[in-house]
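Whiteboard transcription, Tuesday session. T.W. wrote the structure tokens on the left side:
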């Protein structure tokens, strides 16, 4: 069973130097500290029609992995991410009549 997490995020106001530091942090963190079983399906810069700066689309077969990892990740990004909102869904099994 696969679970999806749509995590909307909003940046704090940053100087160009802080924005560069945040970009560098994200690049390094996602390469070495991100759990292998928590897949980043998409990293979207905009969420037009909302107050959010963007969103991540994540998938995992173990929702507990997300619940254990996310608070630690938020603690490390709190200096440049103002707020997040998460929507959780469960992947539906393919419906036969839709695939024809």
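and on the right, the sequence the group agreed on:
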């Amino acid at each position: 069973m696969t679970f999806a997490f749509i995590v909307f995020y909003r940046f704090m106001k940053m100087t160009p130097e802080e924005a560069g530091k945040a970009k560098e942090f994200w690049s390094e963190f996602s390469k070495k500290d991100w759990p292998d079983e928590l897949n980043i399906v998409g990293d979207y810069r905009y969420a037009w029609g909302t107050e959010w700066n963007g969103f991540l689309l994540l998938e995992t077969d173990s929702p507990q992995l997300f619940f254990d990892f996310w608070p630690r990740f938020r603690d490390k990004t709190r200096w440049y991410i103002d707020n997040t909102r998460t929507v959780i869904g469960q992947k539906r099994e393919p419906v036969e009549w839709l695939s024809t």
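Someone added at the bottom: The helical segments are 16-32, 63-77.
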